[in-house]
Amino acid sequence: MNNSRRTPKNRNTRRSIWIAVGTVMAVGGWIVYTNWREEQRAIQRQEDVEAAVDSYLTAKTASDFDTFVSTLSIQSVSESDYTEEELAERYETIFQGIGANDLAVMDQEILLDEEADQYRLTYTLRMDTVLGRLDDLRYETVIQETEDDITLEWAPSLILPGMEEGDSVRVSFTEPDRGSIYDRHGNLLAGEGDAYQAGLYPASLGEGDQRATNLDIISETFDVSVDHLENLLNQAWVTDESLVPFTVVEEGETPEVTGVRYQRTSERVYPLNEAAAHLVGYIGEVTAEDIQEDPTLASGQIVGKAGLEAVFDSQLRGHTGGKISIVDTSDEVKEVIIENERQNGQSVRLTIDSDVQRDLFDSFENEPGAGAVMHPLTGELLALVSAPSYSPQSFTRGISAEEYSGYMDDENTPFVNRYTSRYAPGSTFKILSSLILLDDGGIDPDETNRIEGLQWSPDLPGFGNHSITRVSESVSDVDLATALIYSDNIYFAMEALDMGEEAFTESLNQLPFGDNLDLPFDMTPAQFANDDTIDGETLLADTAYGQGQVLMNLIHQLVFYSPVVNNGRLTYPTVLLNEQRENSDQLFTDESVSIVRDGLIESVMHPNGTARGLQNVSHSTGAKTGTAEVAGEEGNDTNGFLYVFDADDQTYSFVGFLEGQRSGDVIDRFDTFLDNLKPSISDYAVN
Question: Its family (predicted)?
Answer without folding.
Answer: Belongs to the class-D beta-lactamase family. Belongs to the transpeptidase family.
